[in-house]
Design goal:
single chain; 316 residues; 2 domains; 6-stranded antiparallel beta barrel; 20% helix; 33% strand
C-alpha cells in the first residue's frame, strides 16, 4: 500500500523521496523575486487580493496562493511569508512589473505600502523535518515560516543573499535534509500533481484549468478580486480544458513534452506539459479537454496507451 499521503501509484524509493517522506527535501527558488508589504493593514489588504485564506494566518506562517484578475484568471502564483513587521511575497520575477501594477491599483486608503527587495533569496523545504529547516533559516538572519503545499508540510524561507557562503549547506544541517535535483523534483511534483507555472499552465488561465483550486484557493474566505468568477466556475460550470496526470502502462517508453494526447481512436484532445519516469512507470501531466479528464479515462501519447490518473483531490 502507498505511504499515507502518497498517490495510488506505486512509489519507488530514492534519496529525494525518502527525504520528502521522512526528513525534508530542500529546493532553491532563484526564479522568485520579493515584494514587501508593510503597514498596519498589510495583512487585511493583501488578503483581499489573493486566493488563499491569508487573513486567518498567524505571524510565523506561510501560504501558497494565486493572484487573479476580476474575471478569475491567474495573474501570478505567490508564496507569502508573515514576518513580524512585514509580509514577504515571493513571485516569479518576470511578472513583477505587471503584478505590482495590479496590486497598487487596489491600494487606495489602506495603511499598507508595497516595495521590492532585491537582497533576499527564496528557498522551500518539504517534509516532516521542514520546520527544522525553517529554524535554520532564522538562525541565518532570514525569515522561515511554515505552510502547506497540498498535503506537504512546507517551510517557506527568504534569506539574505549573503547570509552564508553556501545557503544549501547551511540549511541542510537540519536532520535528514536532501537538496533536490531538478530531475528529482520533476518526478515528485508530477507524481504529486503539483503544476509548474509557465510549464504546465500559463498566466491568464483559470485556477481550475491548472487543477490548482484544491492547492491554492479557499472557497470559505471573504472577498478577494476575482472571487465571484472562480466560485461560480467551481460551483456552476467547468472549464473547457484541465490539467491531468497520466500514467503509462508498465514498460512504456518516455514521452516528450509537447506531444499530442489522443483518444485511442486518434482524436487529438490535449498536449503533454511535463513528463518523468517513475520507477518502471512513465508519468505525464497534460492539458486535456474536460470530457476526457476523469480518472480511468483511456488515452494515448504517441500511440502508447496512457490512462488518466488524477489524485482524488484534483478530479475535475
Amino acid at each position: 500500500m502507498p505511504t499515507a499521503g502518497m498517490s495510488e501509484l506505486e512509489s519507488p524509493r530514492d534519496p529525494e523521496l525518502e527525504a520528502l517522506l521522512h526528513g525534508a527535501l530542500l529546493r532553491p527558488m532563484p526564479e522568485l523575486a520579493t515584494l514587501v508589504v508593510t503597514g498596519s493593514e498589510r495583512q487585511k489588504w493583501l488578503a483581499g487580493l489573493v486566493t488563499c485564506d491569508l487573513g486567518s494566518l498567524a505571524i510565523g506562517r506561510g501560504a501558497y496562493a494565486l493572484v487573479t484578475s476580476k474575471t478569475g484568471r491567474i495573474q501570478a502564483e505567490v508564496w507569502v511569508a508573515l514576518d513580524r513587521e512585514r509580509l514577504l511575497v515571493g513571485v516569479h520575477r518576470e511578472v513583477v512589473p505587471a503584478l505590482r501594477e495590479h496590486l497598487e491599483f487596489y491600494l487606495v486608503m489602506e495603511d499598507a505600502e508595497l516595495a521590492t527587495d532585491d537582497s533576499l533569496v527564496w528557498w522551500l523545504a518539504h517534509g516532516p523535518s521542514a520546520a527544522d529547516v525553517a529554524v535554520a533559516a532564522r538562525s541565518l538572519g532570514g525569515v522561515g515560516v511554515m505552510g502547506k503545499l497540498g498535503e506537504l508540510e512546507t517551510a517557506v524561507m527568504a534569506l539574505p543573499r549573503h547570509a552564508a557562503p553556501s545557503l544549501a549547506e547551511a540549511l541542510s544541517r537540519a536532520p535528514a535534509v536532501v537538496l533536490a535535483t531538478p530531475e528529482g523534483w520533476d518526478r515528485i511534483r508530477i507524481e504529486r500533481m503539483l503544476p509548474r507555472i509557465c510549464v504546465d499552465f500559463e498566466v491568464g488561465c483559470y485556477p481550475q484549468e491548472a487543477s490548482l483550486e484544491s492547492l491554492a484557493v479557499s472557497f470559505q474566505k471573504g472577498c478577494y478580486v476575482g472571487q465571484e468568477a472562480v466560485f461560480m466556475l467551481e460551483k456552476r460550470g467547468h472549464v473547457q480544458k484541465r490539467l491531468v496526470r497520466l500514467a503509462g502502462a508498465a514498460g512504456a517508453t518516455p514521452v516528450a513534452t509537447g506531444s499530442e494526447i489522443t483518444t485511442p481512436e486518434g482524436e487529438v484532445v490535449g498536449k503533454v506539459t511535463s513528463t518523468a519516469a517513475w520507477g518502471a512507470r512513465v508519468l505525464a501531466m497534460g492539458m486535456v479537454r474536460y470530457k476526457h479528464t476523469t480518472s480511468g479515462t483511456e488515452l494515448a501519447i504517441g500511440g502508447v496507451p496512457f490512462v488518466v490518473s488524477c489524485l482524488a483531490s484534483r478530479e475535475g
